[in-house]
Amino acid sequence: MATDTTAASRTHTFLRVSIALQTLTLFLQAVSAGLLLSTSYGELLHAVGARVMYGASMLYVLAAILAWRPGGGSLRPIPHASVFLVLASGQVVSGIAHMPSFHVPLGVLMFGLSVLALGRMTTTRPAGRASFRA
């Protein structure tokens, strides 16, 4: 029983870290977008950041699957992570196509949703760690 609780806690932590990494990379993308407009190296930073952000979205999907299947957690994070991956794909396509009227609002939406997901994960307890009151 203790092993199950430890595994659930570990996968829940991995899920939290992956959401935090995704949120951080989205924030850094907003910063690099500002640098894109004002410096010569901003385009390089934004391009590298796009790859890191996409990788963080894929990591979020992997963490959601691992938290569900071996960790015995909820199935709910998997659709959320999958939607983030689809949004990240749209973000990459709209950025490559130079469509700022779609790219910028989608980035703002993704950052907002990521902050909400991060807030939800930090306020909920993993399965099996409920507190008991006497």
From TrEMBL:
Q: Which UniProt keywords apply?
A: Membrane, Transmembrane, Transmembrane helix
Question: Which residue windows are transmembrane per the record?
Answer: 19-38, 44-66, 102-119
Question: Which superkingdom heads the taxonomic lineage of this protein's source?
Answer: Bacteria
**UniProt name for this protein:** Membrane protein
Organism equals: Streptomyces viridochromogenes
